[in-house]
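Dear support,

Our group has been running a series of protein-ligand predictions, and this particular one with magnesium ion is the one our PI (initials K.S.) wants archived with full inputs and outputs. We had some confusion internally about which version of the output was final, so please treat the block below as the authoritative record. The input we submitted was:
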Amino acid sequence: MGTRVPALVLGVAGSAALLGYLLLRGPAWEGVAIVAATLLPAGLILYGADARRRARALRDQQAITERTLRDTEAANASLKGRLAELTTLNELGVAISSTLDLDALIDVGLESIVRHLRFDRAVILLLDRERSVLTHGRTVGASPELAAIIAGLETPIDVEESLLGQLARADGPMLFEDVDDDPFEPNRQLAEALGVSSFLGTPLVTKSTTVGVLAVDNRLSGRDVSPNDGPLLYTLGSLIAGAIENARLYAEVEAQKAELERRVAQRTAALAGAIEEAQAARAVAEAASATKSQFLSNVSHELRTPLTSVIGFAKLVRKRLEEVVFPVVPPTAVAADPKLERAMRQVGDNLGIMVDEGERLTALINDVLDLAKIEAGRLEWRDDPVDVGELVTRATAATAALFEQTGLALVVDVEDGLPETRGDRDRLIQVLINLLSNAVKFTPSGSVTVSARRITGDIVFAVADTGIGIAPEDRDRVWEQFGQAGDTLTDKPRGTGLGLPISRQIVEHHGGRMWLESTHGVGSVFRFTLPVVDPPARR
Ligand SMILES: Nc1ncnc2c1ncn2[C@@H]1O[C@H](COP(=O)(O)OP(=O)(O)OP(=O)(O)O)[C@@H](O)[C@H]1O
Ligand SMILES: [Mg+2]
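Confirmed final output from the archive:
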């Protein structure tokens, strides 16, 4: 309205002035003067209305701009707040994950809360689940005296009225106000110790488990604690709770590791002790064994010499009797006296038995001597190239008489073109002879097969028979010195049980192995290996 009046006044004044001026110019301008005086106010009114419309639009525009500015500022402030929260969370996350030391990470967490959320003090108490108490209190921002009080707190969480207990049982942040007027005495004491009337707290929760509580206040600056800080405090608390749980697990694992290490060390020490004992026992056994070997070797030697002369003399006496004494006894006297005839026969037979038994004893003594020497490492071994075929040929020749006497068939099966081995030829023949004579001894009827063939880097010998076999329970015993299968007291072929242990020692000395396969009642197979020695490359 304000602009319309001046426009009207201006229009009327303008048209009056124009009218006057035109009328003064002369009657020719009269018509023009009337038209102009009529149109001018209308034009000015129209112009004024338009100007008003534009001014209003401008004002509206300005209001919108101002509102938008206000909105933007508010959004900006909220964004800044969010950014600060995220920065805090991030910094806290990085800081607390940089240590696994429980106290250190609690301190880092508390410091970060105080700094970023601008609280004066922050306190954390841990929940001892077994005892259901809040304990292990630590604080940042408090005086040393208050820190000591907090460190000594032991607050049961099951007490209904206890504020800290309520906090520990809560599932979100809580604002406690007017605590200094609280009807429950310990709450008032707590408020007095802290010097506060209100504080904000949150349970420290990770994976639905509460590990403690966190409380903050603004005692020093006197600012209000705002419940708006609750959600962020809860989130920070969860971060800290996760780190606390990790640190606890780590400590547990460390403790278990230490315990394990302690046990391993204990076991190792015990083992070392046992090994020492075993070594001592072995040394004693070795000493005893060496003494035994020495003793056997001495005794055998001492026995062999007189035995040789006993056998020699027995043979001589038999020879003299047969060649000198018996021929001069008149046949008539023998015929007339049956006693004389029997005495002469018995003397001859008994001398034969003396020679046989003497020779058997000599063989036994030789075996004992061999074993003693092998065990004492005093046997002198030859180391020559050895032809495998020759070993078999000589062993079968040496035992041919046994086969003739028993009527057993001997089958020889030696692969053509076998390579050589190295070692002591006579000792290796001794092994085959032992096996062949055992086979004959323990085979009432059937056959004995001796074979040799190459299997990769070894020559494998086998002596198989169709004899009585060896029961499973005796299979280890036959390798022991004087070990014999079955019942040694019943009538069984003669022997001392030294052949196999000696044979095995000889084979092992040559770098081979010896073992047995047997089916009781069907027969036995004794096998042994000798390493192939490739001939030196031709120059
Ligand atoms: N081929 C076999 N069949 C059945 N039993 C066997 C055979 N070879 C060995 N044995 C058993 O193994 C025992 C030990 O054999 P080993 O050759 O060591 O002693 P031995 O033949 O009794 O006596 P030695 O060989 O000292 O004269 C034998 O007494 C016998 O019981
Ligand atoms: Mg034997």
